[in-house]
Amino acid sequence: HSHPQFQNHAPKKKGQTLLPPKHQKSKMDLGFGSANQTVGNAATNIILQAHKAQETALDSEISRYDAVLSANDDTIESIRERRLAQMRQTQSRHQKYRAAGHGTYSALGEGQHGGDCAKAFFDAAKKSDRLVVHFHRRSTRVCDVFHKHLEVLAGRRLETRFVKIDVEAGGAADYLVEKLGVVIMPTVVIVKDRKVVHHLHGFDELGGTENFSTEALEYVLGMHDGVIKKEGDEVPPELLGGEGVNSIRVRRAGAPRGRGGAVRGGIYSSREDSDFDSDDN
After folding, report:
1. What is the pLDDT of residues 79-134, one digit of tens each?
2. At what angle do helices 172-179 and 117-127 cross, to 10 degrees?
3. What are the pLDDT digits (tens) for 252-266?
4. DSSP string of 57-95?
5. Helices 143-156/214-223 angle, 10° precision
6. How far is CA 104 from CA 100, 114, 192, 212, in A?
């Protein structure tokens, strides 16, 4: 005999067990309640909005292509001329850079017949908006680390001229060491628009180690206008940790100037943001 509680339900099929009405549900419910349904609806709306935005962007791109395809000969020729003008400007700029010595990492005041490195320095600063000068000493091994990376950057960053000066050459080199406040070896001096804007002392701003990458040096130079900083550049991971680093300026705050692979090579104080003129030498 069936229990009165089950009298109004259809007969059960083989293998089924009928539940009382209070255990039966008219809709599927996973048990998360109305709050979960609200979240689900919001997520669905976000997905739909993103899909709609993608469709709009695609339609816009297709419209641009359609405009080019349906353009008359004059419009296409105008686009072509603008592109050619941009290419000519880039080529002209690169030719100007190379004529001023850009593209190579060269020594100032050296050569078969010698030369005045101070005069060469001021001439280079006059011709180039950006100048990176490595003051080195042949007997200081760590200077070779900068030689290697600056050689690469000279060919990569044509907007900047990269040069080196041997501080043991005497004469005009001694004058530049004193005038520019070169204290330790190696020192890289950054010149922008004929003004000394920054000194890199040894490896202080490069993680305090000689094992830094060319990209790390490129980034640090960009922070100080030595090269044009690229849009969206992020700090190389190697500069975010390790000895000598705890800020975006990368050199450890309060670190002595002679640390980070640098060797003291003079008694002059550092002078940054200093103006100079070729009449001084």
Report:
1. 788 888 888 888 888 889 899 899 999 999 775 445 789 999 999 999 999 999 99
2. 50
3. 333 444 445 555 443
4. HHHHHHHHHHHHHH--HHHHHHHHHHHHHHHHHHHHHHH
5. 80
6. 10, 19, 18, 21
